[in-house]
Amino acid sequence: MMSRDSSPDGVYTRGVAVPGLCTYNGCAWRMYNGVNTWICCCNQNLCNGASIATTTYRPAGNTCHFCSTCPLPFNRYSSLVRDTYSPNGWCTKMSTSSSPNAIATRGADPGVCAYSGCSWKTYNGVNTYICCCRTYHCNTGMSTKKSTIGLLSAALTMMFVARKHL
Fold this sequence. Notes:
The protein has one helix at residues 148-164, and strands at residues 2-3, 26-32, 35-41, 62-66, 82-86, 91-95, 105-108, 117-123, 126-133. The protein is mainly β and 166 residues long. It is elongated, with a radius of gyration of 21 Å.
């Protein structure tokens, strides 16, 4: 079942799911054809004909990607990746390396996020590089912010050195 509204009184499209759309039973907000859509999946005969319980209203939290050993490079359509709900709205990407190509886990905040961005923190006794963000499916990959002054200084230094050797 699909709808632009998670209300039990909303208008729903019912039928056979598009291949790859449903990877687990339940309801979640997902992007479908560029539209944030409430999608409910089930694997029982005629299960999408039932009314949706009133407990399925869209939560105030956030939807994050979840994978315990995420594919490299990250692919949100992989069978290893599913949606998870974050009650506090924070999503994470965690790794023992700060390399963007390192093996990482993604999911809802386990209680370590206080601001958006990446930093080293001790998590479960392990020094872990943790990136936190607060938008829908934001934990696909985290961009690192470079210091504008640092980049400008490096560029000027390279120009200065290049001029001296010409």
